[in-house]
Amino acid sequence: MDDLNLVMKKSGNDRTYINVGDACFGRDLVLMAGPCSIESYQQAETVALAVRRAGAHILRGGAFKPRTSPYSFQGLGQEGLEILKAAGKTAGLPVITEVVDVRDMELVCRYADIIQIGARNMQNFPLLKEAGRCGRPVLLKRSMYATLWEYLNCAEYILLEGNKELILCERGIRTFETYTRNTLDLSIVPALKELTHLPVVVDPSHGTGRASLVEPMSLAAVAAGADGLLIEVHNDPSSALSDRSQQLTSDEFASLSAKVQKARIFFSSI
Amino acid sequence: MDDLNLVMKKSGNDRTYINVGDACFGRDLVLMAGPCSIESYQQAETVALAVRRAGAHILRGGAFKPRTSPYSFQGLGQEGLEILKAAGKTAGLPVITEVVDVRDMELVCRYADIIQIGARNMQNFPLLKEAGRCGRPVLLKRSMYATLWEYLNCAEYILLEGNKELILCERGIRTFETYTRNTLDLSIVPALKELTHLPVVVDPSHGTGRASLVEPMSLAAVAAGADGLLIEVHNDPSSALSDRSQQLTSDEFASLSAKVQKARIFFSSI
Amino acid sequence: MDDLNLVMKKSGNDRTYINVGDACFGRDLVLMAGPCSIESYQQAETVALAVRRAGAHILRGGAFKPRTSPYSFQGLGQEGLEILKAAGKTAGLPVITEVVDVRDMELVCRYADIIQIGARNMQNFPLLKEAGRCGRPVLLKRSMYATLWEYLNCAEYILLEGNKELILCERGIRTFETYTRNTLDLSIVPALKELTHLPVVVDPSHGTGRASLVEPMSLAAVAAGADGLLIEVHNDPSSALSDRSQQLTSDEFASLSAKVQKARIFFSSI
Amino acid sequence: MDDLNLVMKKSGNDRTYINVGDACFGRDLVLMAGPCSIESYQQAETVALAVRRAGAHILRGGAFKPRTSPYSFQGLGQEGLEILKAAGKTAGLPVITEVVDVRDMELVCRYADIIQIGARNMQNFPLLKEAGRCGRPVLLKRSMYATLWEYLNCAEYILLEGNKELILCERGIRTFETYTRNTLDLSIVPALKELTHLPVVVDPSHGTGRASLVEPMSLAAVAAGADGLLIEVHNDPSSALSDRSQQLTSDEFASLSAKVQKARIFFSSI
């Protein structure tokens, strides 16, 4: 803990606030929604307009996709970034997207309002250092194998480079359970909020891998104190090029969005 | 799944209701609270009255304790059962307690309103069979290493012996994370409620092992759809003979109790 | 470690020797082989004679089977014990079999030369206490979720009741890896042999769940210092009533047996 | 498996041989030894000469170190590469070292005879692609959270870029067990050798994290069919700048080296 000077709270109510578009991480319940992968402009615009109507604050979408198999769809790359940015602009939404290669950091920063570092790259230290110098807010996902302390050390790497705008994200850890894609470790939300001043969001789409569990686990995340949610939404989940089983339809997201914001208000009142 | 005839839902709204005292599992948010171990009559009565005032429906307390070390306090045995029963009577609360030995089933049934089978005994098949014939409602905890399917098979063992009054309970699984005592797998709550007709409760005390995380995870459990909570409460946690770091004070429990019941009402309304 | 007085070594070369039939645990490489379940006298005798010819010292076979599903074959019970004993007698082999119910301890002790406590019952403390008083050598399997320290505490439970003839057994732990049935944790073999005076054997059949991996992992176990092996052998694995994919044929066992004994001699010489 | 065309065996005896210096992966038991981190020329030369005398074929040493904390020693970088290369030259040994940043691939290739990709970067796909084009043999470590199938997919990424000289390496997976640093999953050695044509080596230093377990687990790895070992050796482990508890002294390595080569000959003969 001596080695976590920057990430740890200095006092009980030490909190970091990060403004992106109209939303403020640390104050609002920030909803980031959109497709797993950007597949075409039409798809991106359709989803962007739908999630905006449903109350999303930020559009998410993958252009550079880390895929288990080299034969799977790897994302549209720079074209995907352009589409994402344009769809966000049409819908009036800032955008978040993942960077997987240090050499693409500058490129991604030209398009993205928030830089996402995915679970597989949580300990990609050169990427963390670049993120610490990139001048954009960064969302750092917890690796599927990381303890709380390892995760906080990765956050420290980014803060140490001078970037104060860091958002933490629980997205499920790997356990023996195979019914869910990962095991969403919601206990880490209140634990992180006790220990650090950083906003903490939750990704129940990857955390469960099952569309029917996304809404209940989103509500549970809010109850546990989450500052935001990252939700996969697709105009037609069954035809998606990645993560079919876990993406919500626009209607399902609209229902979720309304409920989690009500829940946020409820939990602020008790 | 062919082998889970009894445990699986026959239709979407197939639900089992279990009445114990004034509470109904499957309809109410049932709060079971009390000390990890029964240590003395005075302790048990003090806690029983306090949790009753705070809104608990059922008094919990261990008389036969499964302990990692043979040199740890093993519980008061039959004397503990007598104390638990008497303290419950004084407070007007039914009681739940664990049975760890098939040979004690009859004895425990003379005192307990609900029989608890602990995580370490989830696959103690002779004990499951006796529980299936014991004539009392049974609360079966998920083992720290059980998949959802293994857990449901253990439930099937009990139902197959004719006992229809079975309550499931998530209490945390074992993972690589050491910050929390176990990893509370809340995703299994909506998953179990989709699949089975049985009530599902959550034990955030063992699930986290940290008193400060019990309230947020209790709220998260309610948000995820839990039908009840099992909470360790002690008159003086720092002097407890077992599980010191995770037991709540009576005041902390009273705060939790009020909040979770409000949350239950809120979630029923959205 | 203060609480492990009986299980820990008093000095570097403190070792427990346990004689069963012609074999001595702690001195010889003891081979225990036989079917997962006793299915009929003919099956048991066929396998018993085959494994005896191939060099096994002890016949294994399940009469009381702990099965995940209540609808799976549960073993022949007392009839299975009788068959096992008779087949062992015909082949001139002592027998090892599992006890799963404290109420059966006396019965099983009438037939078995070694009492096995299975992985699911490692923390069935009443069963451990009975095993500590049963007057027979006991083989205690490590649970699939047990740390080394938890496992040693369970061994301490048995020694504390007065039984000095205890054999430890690694049989694989549960991890995220699904290619193998469990993850055989061979590092625990030299770790246990550094810490305790007890013999340590390995069960590569359950540890891997794949017949083709049993021989290489048996050799690895010997290299790591194991005092014996527990191997599932069936006259016709494809028709077995349980654990088909991991049982060896008699010929495969004969090959394994010859190689591991050569390996034992080799490792004693370097 | 359809997606693993390059990594899978075409026939039972399909094997890849990789020559580095005097050693041939796939034919010899190749010993790679040296310090965790390169700390100074003197340290590197001392260890290099010692491991050479003891029978090592290749010198290992870290110049770019992926460290959990940003405040830990991060390696000497290019200076470390120069020292490693010079020490290898003095001792007559080829060298292996880790690359952690795609931008350093060319630099590292100027010094290293084998490029190592560490466990934390197993799914750093840009790094895998560069490794596939780097023109050097690559040693790809299995991540602490990777299933066999995920690991093979990462190997496929490298082969698909045209590099045929790939060595696999088991170095322990993350489980609940904390006695050892990781859980060395030796079963994956015979599993990988059944499935793929690639050489498979084992790193028992990281796999166990305890010096006293390195020799028995090295012997076990050879028994399981490993094609080589990666061993941390330090001139003075107690003063090492990283991984103190798991580095062997030169004398311990000399003992290990002699035994594993005898074991290799023994296992080739049975």
Question: What does it look like?
Answer:
The structure is a homotetramer of 270-residue chains. In chain A, helix 8 (211-223) packs parallel to helix 9. Chain A is α/β, with parallel strands linked by helices and 270 residues long. In chain A, helix 6 (188-195) links the parallel strand 8 (166-170) and strand 9 (200-202). Chain A has nine helices and ten strands. The longest helix of chain A has 20 residues, at 250-269. The first copy, chain A, is globular and about 45 Å long. In chain A, the strands form two sheets. An eight-stranded parallel β-barrel of chain A has the order 3-4-5-6-7-8-9-10, surrounded by seven helices. In chain A, strands 1-2 form a two-stranded antiparallel sheet. Helices cover 37% and strands 14% of the residues of chain A. The interface between A and B is large, with 41 and 41 residues.
